[in-house]
Amino acid sequence: MADHDRRALMSAAPPPISFETRPGRYRHWRVEAEGPVASLTLAVDESGGLRPGYPLKLNSYDLGVDIELADAVERFRFEHPQVRCVVFRSALDRVFCSGANIFMLAGSSHGFKVNFCKFTNETRLGIEDASRHSGQRYLAALSGACAGGGYELALAADEILLIDDGASAISLPEAPLLGVLPGTGGLTRLVDKRRVRRDRADVFSTLAEGIRGRRALEWGLVDGLAPRSRFEEGVRERAAALAASAPGPPPEATGVALDDLEPEESADGVRYRHVELTFDRPARTATLLVHAPEDPFPQDADALSAVGASLWHLRMARELDDALCRLRFNEPQLGVVLLRVAGDPEAVAEADRRLFRLGKTWLARETRLRLARTLRRLDQTARSFFALAEAGERFTGTLAELLLAADRSYLCDDLDRPAGVALTEMNRGACPMGNGLSRLESRFLGDSERAAAFGPGVAFEAAEAEARGLATFAPDDLDWEDEIRVAVEERARFSPDAMTGMEASLRFAGPETLETKIFGRLSAWQNWIFQRPNAMGDRGALTTYGRPERHAFDWERT
Asked: Of 334, 279, 438, whose CA–CA distance to 111 is shortest?
């Protein structure tokens, strides 16, 4: 396909992206999950891109490939808790993965590229989270060349085994070939996670051809080598050892099926069972409304398993997660998101109490971890979040995490029915942020006594919540509508770029972690580099990739 034809196809208005899938619909991954060792085999369908205009050759991937990967990782945790090790494999001979598809990146909008990098890093953090908390280890079995995003996927695994055939190399070629960075997750994991020396990481990240065999092992880029004649045997041995080193599955862990969300979609929003997402496009705002549970929470572990994926915390977390992904990719013009709650606050508090009473069961644990991952997705979403509670409404427990995650919060100080905040066990660190702290600890950074004072059962009405630092403002009912209108309209008029940078800088106070480094750098450096002419200009490296003409750089350092 000629370049101008490809660009014309990809510049057309893209259809909305769906983030729901299941193994029976996968086009790019094969799943085997029998016994303690499972396999995820990358077999990318070249013609299966999310949009026309780029074939997915050499196991290169686009967002659709990663949506399937995220779904598979999630299902291993909930549907196959007996799995102790997952092996990444390739269906292609002598190629593991050539990374993100270059023509897809070159033809995508700036916002899509940044959100694509963000989603892939969230998926890889989910893999590391599964290893850390669910006892499911990951082994990357590199049976051929592994480049760019393919090596970033391998870096997310606990161990990397490379075939030693004199030809297969690993590489992060983005800087020498494309004038960009390896998703920022690649560089960060190289030095922070694998402890590769900085000078060696510098050399490796500027070698388009990559590094093979013994040097890759010596430099810490892989954990083991195996010749072609013993590669499959080596994979089995390492997978068995990783599975044996992982904690065994709890005896009651039989798995629960993750059913389809099947939301009702319209031009003005998306409605799920517990979450509603509505759009006000002229105002460039959206509203995320989360409903309290209506059904009684299960009393014991057997009842919990019987409810399965319909458990309110789990179902709500999956719905909220899907809504956030839709906002990122399908609604880039909506800059302000209003977080609202509805329903009985005491039902939320009781559901939280019972979830913690069943905390030692694997499903309760996995549910809390899933909720934590969803809230971290909200933390990393480049939108302005305002939490609003009108008269009589209350952010309680699990839903109070939405208020604590918001950039601002407004509680109506109605004379007869003031809004409020009530805390439960869920607010005491069950859903840590990417910095490793609870949202209360991040809010009151350096004042541990103040953060500790807000224990389970603490509840405040609007004015006191503002006074104690749990709410930003508490307007009275006479000023409520005008104050909210002015605040939202003002926020929507600010530069989206300025707000993205400001919010990313303010949300993660305190210690740096692998996660905060990845997303902080992605918000700043990768965001900036993707817009620079050296990458995306008429003769930028990403623009001219695959063409006869050579790129031309502006040599000024900034």
From this structure: 334
Q: In the structure encoding, which two tokens stand for residue 134, read together?
A: 């669910």
Q: Hey, what are 308's tokens?
A: 């399965």
pLDDT tens column, 439-490: 999 999 999 889 888 989 999 999 999 999 999 999 999 999 999 999 999 9
The 3-state DSSP class for residue 408 equals strand
Q: Quick: pLDDT tens for 175-225.
A: 999 899 887 799 999 999 999 999 999 999 999 999 999 999 999 999 999
Both structure tokens of 284: 């460039």
Based on the number of CB atoms within 10 Å of its own CB, is 247 exposed (0-12), middle (13-18) or buried (19 or more)? exposed
Cα dihedral sign, 545-547-550-553: negative
Terminal-residue alpha carbon distance, the chain: 37
**Residue type, position 312, single letter:** W
- Nearest-angstrom CA–CA distance, 286 and 384: 10
pLDDT band at 86; cut points 50, 70, 90: very high
What's the CA gap between 310 and 297, in Å, rounded?
A: 11
Q: Which of 261, 249, 240 is nearest to 366 (CA)?
A: 249
Residue with tokens 């990559």: 210
Q: What is the largest CA-CA distance in the chain?
A: 78
Quickly list H helices, 80-148: 102-106, 110-134
Average pLDDT score over residue span 500-529: 89
Task: In the chain, count H helices and then E strands.
Answer: 24, 20
3-state secondary structure (DSSP) of residue 183: coil
Residue 342 has phi, psi (to 5 degrees) of -145, 160
How many whole angstroms separate alpha carbon 421 and alpha carbon 461?
A: 7
Q: How many CA atoms lie within 13 A of 47 on its CB side?
A: 0
DSSP state of 308: G
**Distance (Å, whole) CA 24 – CA 33:** 14
Q: And the tokens for 310?
A: 């319909």
97 strand-pairing partners: 146
Tokens of 129: 């989270």
**What is the percentage of the chain residues whose pLDDT exceeds 90?**
82
Two tokens, residue 327: 């906002």
Cβ-count burial of 16 within 10 angstroms (0-12 exposed, 13-18 middle, 19+ buried)?
exposed
d(CA 423, CA 458): 5
Within 10 Å of residue 369's Cβ, how many Cβ atoms?
A: 20
* Identity at 317, one-letter amino acid code: A
How many alpha carbons lie under 13 Å from residue 552 in its C-beta half-sphere?
5
Residue from 526, 538, 554, 548 nearest 175 by CA: 526
Torsion angle of the four alpha carbons 210, 211, 217, 218, in this order, in degrees rounded to the nearest 10: -120
Burial of 271 (0-12, 13-18, 19+ CB in 10 A): middle
Yes or no: say if 408 and 360 are a contact pair by the CB < 8 Å rule: no
Output 149 or 553, whichever has higher pLDDT: 149
